[in-house]
Amino acid sequence: MAAAFLVADSDRLSLGMEVQHKPSKEYLEDLSHGNLDGFPDFLTERSSDIVDLLLDHNRISIIPKLIGNFTNLVLLDVSFNSLRYISSEIVRLEHLQMLHARNNLLDDDSLPKDMGLMKSLQVINLSGNAFSEFPMQLTEMTALKCLQLGANNIVHIPPEIANLKRLEVLYLGGNKLTELPEEVGCLSNLVSLYLCDNQLLSLPRSMVGLQHLRSLSLHNNHISTLPPEIVKLNLVELSLRNNPLVVRFVQDMVLDPPSLLELAGRVIKVKNIKYEPNSLPSNLIDYLDSAQHCVNPKCKGVFFTSRVEHVKFVDFCGKYRLPLLEYLCSSRCKTSPLIYGSSESESEEELPVVSKMRKVLLG
Length: 363
Ligand SMILES: [Zn+2]
Description:
2 domains, elongated, disordered N terminus, Leu-rich_rpt_typical-subtyp, Leucine-rich repeat-containing protein 58, LRR_domain-containing, LRR_dom_sf
């Protein structure tokens, strides 16, 4: 097969990612939209000749053992069927690069346990199925460039996702995620990350490690603020609509008064009172050393555990104003007119918040 570096059939393309495979008519078997309820017998006669096998839009419920005879398969499309089970013989397909099985009935028991042995797979699409757990086998497929698991019921992403170092596209939209592991920040080749339509409350700070990320989709989540590190990314696309962002954050703000320990510690740091390791218990030394500076450049204050969360808007790529979470030493400490703290929630102060929000939400 000529190794023409062309883009595959646009319908099977994965979110704009280029796949180095050109379907050739000679080796293509297109049985899509065929009303089939299984693999037809005539296929088995020439199974080892077929490179691209299209069985999408049928009524097939299992991928049978004979799939193991299709030893030269590069692309298999079984999307839009009634698949509940994939036979473990699929692991024998050493050349398979693309597996499309979206919109089926696959669940946590449907994939072969040793599917992680399929080291040639670069694209796998399992969107629109019934997974409630992230299939751990996928974390062993180290050649994966594009992984789509949208529209399932997944609640948790395992830290082992960090194994997928070559991943460029990760689609997790339409699941039930409330958080992401810090290890997402290890996916250093990621270009597009889709997290829309989940229940995410925040993002890990490690995302600053995604230096190739260009598109980040976060709409329809429960995110109230973003980690300040996000401004270091070179995003060209960012969707934030339908997140509570600043509005809910400001309303929910509660200030706990600082403890006596905190107040005493602040005086020691601000007045620069000297202390020696042998003059104080080690836990107090550690405590004093954990002091953080107030982000207000006009304030010399420090804080320990009692801090005031506030939101700072930052220009981002010249297109957005992002609400970032930072900390001040007290509720009376303000940095600039762009800061919207708890004490300024008068009605005339809320107007500028709303106008900034529109830029973020709709930008
Ligand atoms: Zn301060």
